[in-house]
Amino acid sequence: MTRYVMVVDLRRCVGCQTCTVSCRHVNATPPGVQWRQVLDIESGEYPDVHRTFMPVGCMHCGDPPCMQVCPSTATYQRDDGLVGINYELCIGCGYCAVACPYQARHIVHRAHFAFGEQPTAAEAASLDEKRISVATKCTFCIGRIDESTVAGLTPGVHPEVTPACVNSCIAEALCFGDKNDLESNVAKLIKENEYFRMHEDLGTDPGMYYLSDERK
Amino acid sequence: MSRVAPWHQANWDYRAAGNFIGGGSGTGLLLFASVAATQGAPFWVTGLMALALVAGGLGFVSLEIGRPLRSLNVFLHPRTSWMTREAIVAPLLLGTGLAAILLGSMAMLWVAALLGMLFLYCQGRILFASKGIPAWRQTGVVALIMVTGLTEGAGMLAAVLPWIAPETPLRWLLGSLFLLLLARTVVWRSYFNRLSASGAPGKTLAVFARFDKLFLMVGNGLPALLAVTLFAGGGAITSLLAGILAVAGGWALKFTLIARAAHNQGFALLKSPVRGKGQPGSGAKPGWTLPAEDSGQGRA
């Protein structure tokens, strides 16, 4: 069975935030809402200090706590592992947002824009009233994934059906694909490298794999 | 720059706290009003107060949800959502309670009281299922919500019963209030100790540390002392004071838990990546106070 995941090679990420900008452009998220963001994390103690850039967002968990708690069934999980939100069902209670240990969910209660009260032409064109006062989050560009079956293309291989952040990454630090397809790029990366997943101890089975070293 | 260390969740505020406050006090009061009714106390006043508190709490929630016109969708997920389960119990509780008052039925009052306990349990489980908030998902939070709800109910009845039914014996109620205040102290300390031991956002622990002493002394110790003195004799004023303090302590606890100490999980880097041919570096879990065995991973 297909299980779409994202692999983040922390050795490659340079923190340029192109993925963040690309996501915002494609998904038209309002100011302050970033479905894909890149953390700048300092670790270690002088003189052995490290600086790591870490892309984060919805982990499309295998056991998503947001879906378990959602009282309206607006949050759902597909057979391919993608976790989505039905904006028509969501009541905007925020329970999913407090259940998500990745701070991936956002609720905006009124439309607001980058430059004052009036939207720019691009913002006006992409404004979606359905996303006001409901939970939103990264969808792994679910619309593109759905097009893959129609177009006969493979997510993670063909850019047309691959999440925007992955396409835009200048360092190829982000990879996307079906973990259960042993020939996929993500399956090979997971097999060949040391990796960890964030907050795995919470039992969420997150779908973002962070590579830290090659497997020795 | 993006935040890495935990920050306070912004989705549930005083309105959500209001639901837990009204629901806990209301269901606790309903239970003790039922017990008092077996001693001959009239229950329509206390019953109505209890139902008004529960309904008021739910009203607070309706002020918070983004799409109130779709609020009936809250009933769609009973299989796993404790919020749905709470929503299912609520109309049954309010309907049975109202029917008990209108019909003067003791049997229905007891059914309503038991539904109230179920409602209260759902509220505890709502918090416990919130994996994104370390203070809520901590073991013991369900017991804390239950015991403080019962304490508030006993306190509320102790505050009003001498005024509305002065002939009703009070010793059982004061004894219950005293024991519940002790239980709340034990459960609170156990919860706080476990949270500290298992690791939590430093800001959450700091909020609780500031709250702890005042809560124990004014919210539990003082009303417990007043309840004991009432055994030796005392009037309605002392009972009122003991009750108010017990209720205020519980309300402060829930407001603190939901609107002050609900810092989220934040982010964590298990280890930093290899650069060139080196070794992976240490990780980071900023803003966390971690148990000793994990301390290599985090920075307080």
The CATH homologous superfamily of the largest domain in chain B is termed Formate dehydrogenase/DMSO reductase domain
Percentage of residues in strands of chain B = under 5%
Supply Rg of chain B.
Answer: 22 Å
From the coordinates shown, what is the CATH architecture of the largest domain in chain B?
Up-down Bundle
Report low-confidence residues of chain B grouped into runs of 5 or more. 295-300
Number of strands of chain A: 10
- Classified by CATH, the class of the largest domain in chain B is Mainly Alpha
What would CATH call the architecture of chain A?
A: 2-Layer Sandwich
Radius of gyration of chain A, whole Å: 17 Å
Taken together, the total number of domains of chain A comes to 1
Question: What is the straight-line distance between the termini of chain B?
Answer: 20 Å
Kindly, what is the distance between the CA atoms of the first and last residues of chain A, rounded to a whole number of angstroms?
29 Å
Shape descriptor of chain A? globular
Secondary structure tally: strands of chain B: 4
Which blocks of ≥5 consecutive residues of chain A have pLDDT under 50?
A: none
pLDDT averaged residue by residue of chain A:
96
Q: Supply the number of helical segments of chain B.
A: 9
Q: What is the domain tally of chain B? A: 2
Strand order of the largest sheet of chain A: 8-1-10-9
N-to-C order of helices and strands of chain B: HHHHHHHEHHEEE
List keywords for this structure.
heterodimer, A: 216 residues, alpha+beta, Alpha-Beta Plaits, four-stranded mixed β-sheet, two-stranded antiparallel ribbon, 7 helices, 23% strand, globular, B: 300 residues, mainly alpha, Formate dehydrogenase/DMSO reductase fold, 9 helices, 67% helix
Describe this structure in words.
The complex is a heterodimer of chains A (216) and B (300). By secondary structure, chain A is of the alpha+beta class. Chain A has a single domain (4-214), classed as 2-Layer Sandwich (Alpha-Beta Plaits), CATH 3.30.70.20. Helix content of chain A is 23%, strand content 23%. Chain A has helices at 18-27, 65-69, 95-99, 121-126, 142-151, 164-168, 185-192, and strands at residues 4-9, 37-45, 48-56, 75-77, 83-85, 106-107, 135-136, 174-178, 193-196, 208-214. The longest helix of chain A is centred in the first third of the chain and has 10 residues, at 18-27. The model of chain A has no long low-confidence stretch (mean pLDDT 96). Chain B has 300 residues and is mainly alpha-helical. Chain B is globular, with a radius of gyration of 22 Å. Chain B folds into 2 domains: 14-265, Up-down Bundle (Formate dehydrogenase/DMSO reductase fold); 266-300, no CATH class. Chain B is built from 9 helices and 4 strands. Classes of the chains: A alpha+beta (216), B mainly alpha (300). At the A-B interface, strand 2, strand 3, helix 2, helix 3 and strand 10 of A face helix 3, strand 2 and strand 3 of B.
